[in-house]
Amino acid sequence: MTYRCAVIGNPIAHSRSPDIHAAFAQARGIDLRYDRILAEADNFATIVAQFFANGGRGLNITLPYKESAYRLCEQTSADARRAEAVNTLWQENGRLCGDNTDGRGLRHALEHEHAYPLAGKHILILGAGGAARGVIAPLCAARPARLHIANRTTAKAAAIIAAQQLHTTVPLTAGSLEDLAAAPAYDLIINATSAAFNNTAFTLPDNIAHPQTYAYDMTYGRDTPFLDWARSHHLTAHDGSTMLQAQAWLSFQQWFPA
Ligand code: ATR
Fold this sequence. Notes:
Helices cover 36% and strands 25% of the residues. Strand 1 (3-9), helix 1 (17-28) and strand 2 form a beta-alpha-beta unit. By secondary structure, the chain is an alpha/beta fold. The structure holds 2'-monophosphoadenosine-5'-diphosphate. Residues 63, 127-132, 151-153, 156, 192-195, 198, 200, 202 line the site of 2'-monophosphoadenosine-5'-diphosphate. Pathway: Metabolic intermediate biosynthesis; chorismate biosynthesis; chorismate from D-erythrose 4-phosphate and phosphoenolpyruvate: step 4/7.
């Protein structure tokens, strides 16, 4: 039997998910067809409904539809509710279910692929869009000492921590990018901005890094202003390829439990 899965987004041509899932399926001996589906805002919900009505096994959701997909779900995981967004859909007893594996994928990538334990660390997240919101709860579950969100628009960072602080004892703080000029050095700096995709200026002060600061960019497959900054400060720096792989594996396990 051929199982059908797909990733939906816009744009979608660049998605690496089909190759990643093909490798997982091959390793497990599963006959899988995994497509890329380009959706528009006005046909996204119909495409999802038709996919499952036609026997589809699972969907990955990527930008800009993770929040829309969350709103379609009839059942959601705790991580999906914390993120208010899903990247993984499946059906159970005719109900549309959703999970967000991005944050657990990031945690797994850092702790296991890069052997970088998060417990006790001082973490800085740059950005306060969907990408940032999606990873905060799973990062906090790893017991860092504290987590600060810095964003160009401070109010968005403040809104995220107000919502997330209800669910964790890890001290969460928020501020502007300018405030970072007076901030201490952080152990781990995670870029969750989309600065690589637009041509606007992106600068960071030197004081936020110490010689052992670890830099991780959730963007993958391209050079970013953040990675340039990290390398120019001689920091250990990685792009988001390991997170991509780990979030995909968590989705695959949901659709095809071992
Ligand atoms: P995503 O879902 O990928 O997080 P998003 O919701 O559009 O996308 O959020 C993008 C994030 O990158 C935002 O935090 C944005 O800052 P604002 O909230 O002030 O818009 C941030 N961002 C984008 N370009 C940036 C730049 N050049 N410098 C700093 N932050 C930037």
